[in-house]
Q: What sequence folds into this?
């Protein structure tokens, strides 16, 4: 009889694990505490408006393609992708914006308009970024089991030692003088939850993800990806349960024995948690926890965010699918979030209007909007 695996949560990590484990012949069940699947990527529908609740930037399409290819499938077997053009619009003030288009050639032209010679600098910067992407994704992400930091030391990364000592901000500022262009190139690492001045230059692979690979959109939004992964999982025999909150991971003789849901024990040979690590620890009785409360209280958490899902009763002009409002001081914003853990008084924000690409996500003549601003990362 195949071993029973219980997976906690139904975010992307759980959905992907479920597929790989089921493919290996395990009897897999996914238990989600919310009433719908997808975790941070779940969907919210109200009065004819459809919102992706978390992720909205579909970058690195190759990673999604590889996932489906691992099961003999193609991404297009499940959903249709559109490359956005413009990929996004960055506002620096009223009527002051730059549109990032869908190819490096077009982006180079925009750079050149803002700073003479910057298109050549960009081409060189992007060549390094592409090289870093190949190492980060192809050589590291898929090859290492992730058991030791030593796995990061390979022949290729040793040759890149310099880019681990420098940071993104330094490398960008060395090559570009124009403030707006600098911001454009420093912004993608914000997705990693860190300041460009604290992020090793090696992470310019995010710039390749941005300008090199482009910004894509599944027809009905990010939730298409959740549905696709669940569809694939079901075809492999995975069982999914919503409204099933795991309250305890039970250990018997130093081995996992079961999980508790609604006061009932569900026998499990293996438990995989896709819930946040700190939360997963609370599912063990004290003596089985790896870290103390004090330990977690001293950790630096990834930034949080303040989100608004808004339905407009009219069509909006002059905005794109993705809009970044960089019309305030980014350093002050970043200092508040990352250094002093305060809510910024004058925050940068991001606005997403999926109804511009797919009108079906809002009622006729309306627009849906998702406003996001990142916030401080206090652990308490
Ligand atoms: C606002 C926001 C915007 C983002 N934007 C982007 C973007 O544009 N592009 C991008 O690529 N990424 C983006 N991300 C990141 C991306 O959404 C996440 O990395 C990803 O969804 C996390 O998946 P996960 O499986 O690790 O965790 P989660 O999605 O958090 O899944 C964990 C699941 O576990 C469940 N759970 C927790 N405890 C229990 C329990 N005790 N019992 C049962 N279930 C439990 C939770 O309900 C949740 O469903 C964004 C994230 C956020 C929050």
A:
């Amino acid at each position: 009889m195949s071993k029973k695996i219980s997976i906690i949560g139904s975010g992307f990590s759980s959905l992907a694990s479920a597929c790989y484990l089921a493919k290996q012949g395990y009897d897999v069940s996914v238990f989600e505490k919310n009433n719908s699947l997808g975790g941070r990527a779940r969907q919210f529908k109200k009065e004819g408006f459809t919102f992706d609740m978390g992720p909205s930037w579909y970058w690195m399409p190759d990673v999604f393609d590889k996932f489906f290819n691992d099961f003999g499938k193609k991404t297009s077997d499940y959903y249709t992708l559109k490359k956005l053009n413009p990929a996004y619009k960055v506002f620096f003030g009223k009527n002051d914006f730059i549109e990032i288009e869908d190819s490096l050639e077009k982006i180079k032209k925009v750079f050149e308009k803002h700073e003479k010679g910057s298109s050549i600098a960009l081409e060189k910067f992007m060549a390094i970024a592409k090289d870093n992407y190949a190492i980060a994704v192809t050589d590291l992400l898929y090859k290492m089991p992730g058991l030791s930091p030593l796995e990061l030391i390979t022949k290729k990364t040793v040759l890149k030692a310099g880019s681990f000592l420098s940071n993104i901000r330094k490398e960008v500022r060395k090559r570009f003088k124009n403030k707006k262009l600098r911001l454009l190139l420093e912004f993608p690492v914000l997705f990693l939850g860190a300041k460009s001045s604290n992020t090793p230059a090696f992470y310019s692979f995010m710039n390749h993800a941005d300008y090199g690979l482009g910004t894509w959109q599944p027809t009905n939004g990010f939730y298409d990806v959740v549905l696709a992964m669940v569809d694939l999982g079901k075809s492999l025999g995975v069982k999914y349960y919503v409204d099933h909150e795991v309250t305890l991971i039970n250990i018997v003789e130093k081995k996992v024995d079961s999980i508790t849901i609604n006061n009932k024990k569900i026998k499990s040979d293996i438990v995989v948690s896709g819930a946040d690590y700190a939360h997963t620890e609370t599912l063990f009785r004290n003596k089985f926890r790896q870290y103390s409360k004090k330990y977690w209280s001293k950790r630096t958490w990834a930034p949080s965010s303040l989100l608004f899902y808004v339905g407009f009763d009219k069509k909006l002009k002059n905005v794109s699918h993705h809009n970044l409002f960089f019309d305030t001081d980014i350093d002050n914003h970043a200092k508040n979030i990352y250094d002093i853990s305060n809510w910024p008084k004058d925050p940068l924000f991001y606005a997403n209007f999926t109804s511009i690409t797919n009108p079906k996500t809002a009622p006729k003549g309306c627009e849906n909007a998702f406003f996001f601003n990142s916030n401080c990362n206090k652990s308490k």
